Amino acid sequence: MRIRTKVQGVIAALALVLAVTACAPGANSDSESGGSRTANTADISEGVQPDAAAVKLLPQSYRDKGELTVAMDLHYPPTTFLADDNTTPIGLNPDIARLVAKKLGLKLKFENTAFDTIIPGIDGGRYDFTVTTMAPTPERLKVLDMIDYFNGGLSVAVSAGNPLMISNDDMCGRDIAVTKGSTGQLIHLPNVSEWTCAAKGKPAINAVTLPNVQEALTQLASKRIDGVFYDTASLVWAQKQQPDTFTILSPQVDTRSDHVVAIGLKKGSPLTPALQKATQSVLDSPEYKKSLANWGLESGAITEAKLN
User: Fold this and answer.
1) Start-end ranges of CATH 3.40.190.10 in the chain?
2) Do 207 and 185 form a contact (C-beta atoms < 8 A)?
3) CB atoms within 10 A of CB 57
4) Interval 261-292: pLDDT, tens
5) How much is the pTM?
6) DSSP symbol at 170
7) Kind of pairing, strands 175-179 and 246-248?
8) How many angstroms separate the CA atoms of 143 and 268, rounded?
9) Beta bridge partners of 199
10) Apex CA 37: angle with CA 34 and CA 42, to 5°?
11) pLDDT digits over 129-142, tens only?
């Protein structure tokens, strides 16, 4: 009974920390001075003026409409989540989307949708673009134009203290969670399993596909899985919020590839040139660096809004 109560307590804490009522670390955090963390809900694009060169490239149909629709899965702190009002999108990705819209002189409409439905929605014309920590994989580039804006990495979270002695080089036979539709599920964990397990005659890593990182960390806390394979920034953020629950393995997992993520919009879209120009203007701006600092993601800064 005591064990069950402890697990329930951890899960309740995770629900508070990781769901839509989560608080954000970074420049607005008072934790270093002993205060409580407060979510950064300020609109970083306030006062940002349109970029004339980007606006010049904007198709007339978007000028007439005056608005862009951006799709995001708002369940992934600190890059993409909801403030404690359960309404306001916050994190690096909402900041980037707001800044891009301002550089184009357009209003912005957010659509909160599951990660694996975003690309079909863009292809079907329901959304204009996405800023949702999406890597420009060959499969995605068949249907999307993708513009780089951030560089991250992948790590493994295990139970506090790592009692199972899991390492990046030996997760063989372990139940490791990945999120549905992510590059972790589709590319990186299968590759790591091949290199570190199959090539050495060991059992493959058992990938447990879950809908989002909150569910994965909850299952880890209740010991239903052995680890979580996910974006380093989000895992480190969760560890800071619940320091006695997780251990993040160091260094990051070597996946033999970079981890640039990109804005996505329909392949061949007439909006692409304007959006690329606006994104470059964002990367050159002080607001970009401020957003990265707000969410503790300074190491992921890039300087070129490359069109893949």
Assistant:
1) 39-152+259-300, 153-248
2) yes
3) 17
4) 999 999 999 999 999 999 999 999 999 999 99
5) 0.71
6) B
7) unpaired
8) 9
9) none
10) 135
11) 999 999 898 999 99
